[in-house]
Amino acid sequence: MTIHYSVSDHVAMVSLDRPEALNALDVDSLKALREALCAARDDDDVRVIVLTGAGRKSFCVGADLKNTLPPSTNFGSSFVRSIDRAAAEGIYIRWMDLGSLRILKPIIGAINGYCLGGGLELALQCDLRIASNNAVFGLPEAVVGSIPAVCGIQALQKAVPSAIAMKMLLTGSKIDAAYAERVGLISDVVEPDAVIDKALELAGTIAANSPLAVQMIKKVAETSSNVPLAQALEFTELAWGAMRDSEDRVEGRRAFAEKRTPRFKGR
């Protein structure tokens, strides 16, 4: 699979390009995907990342079942290895965990067609998800004798009501875009030809805001989502304090007072 990467107007576009296999992921493409996302993470000009799949048939259908068979390496010995070594020895799911990349820039999933298995697990790790009206979502691992091994079980239960998540997980059943929007899995449904345009519109709106504030909001959301409220509020206060004297915050107030568009620098 080819992973396309480009940057324009503070937005990085990362595209999975293997439409003949519905953008299924093998070990090499997972490694290339991580490299592209790291490039966006480390580029100060990038403020938002859009993740999509080439073609109109599929965003991603997860792991390439033909090329991800169990290796000869013992699982126990690989389990205690580093992320990259474990992935190379067959625990490829570690390369699907985007959390290990520590990307604080917002990621928008632009979803066309099938979004299944590991593909949905990738999408669930995006901060925003928009989809075409022909999109189909599901975690069918149980049907092929496996389980969602990255974040699918936990992330789906956070994204939609538990009863709906468990029905999808236990039966392997799929849902369409209209239903996905209704239960909160995605935020927007558009025509297939408009998915990228809608993603870039959202990305542009986010990129126009203070990149420092946007990334701090994401950090607070991720850090405090599973802690007691008092602890979450304390961390939020610390984050606000870290932002209080930033150039972006001062610029935002000056621009408001002067009735002009702010010029944020991410500092």
What does this structure look like?
- The chain is an alpha/beta fold and 267 residues long.
- The protein folds into 2 domains: 2-207, 2-enoyl-CoA Hydratase, Chain A, domain 1, CATH 3.90.226.10; 211-257, Orthogonal Bundle (Lyase 2-enoyl-coa Hydratase, Chain  A, domain 2), CATH 1.10.12.
- Helices cover 42% and strands 17% of the residues.
- The chain has helices spanning 27-42, 75-79, 83-88, 118-124, 152-159, 162-171, 177-183, 195-207, 211-224, 229-244, 247-257; strands at 2-8, 11-17, 48-53, 58-60, 107-111, 114-116, 128-132, 136-138, 174-176, 188-190.
- The strands form 2 sheets. Strands 1-2-3-5-7-10 form a 6-stranded mixed beta sheet, sandwiched between helices.
- Helix 4 packs across helix 5, helix 5 packs antiparallel against helix 6 and helix 9 runs antiparallel to helix 10 (229-244).
- The longest helix is centred in the first third of the chain and has 16 residues, at 27-42.
- The model has no long low-confidence stretch (mean pLDDT 90).
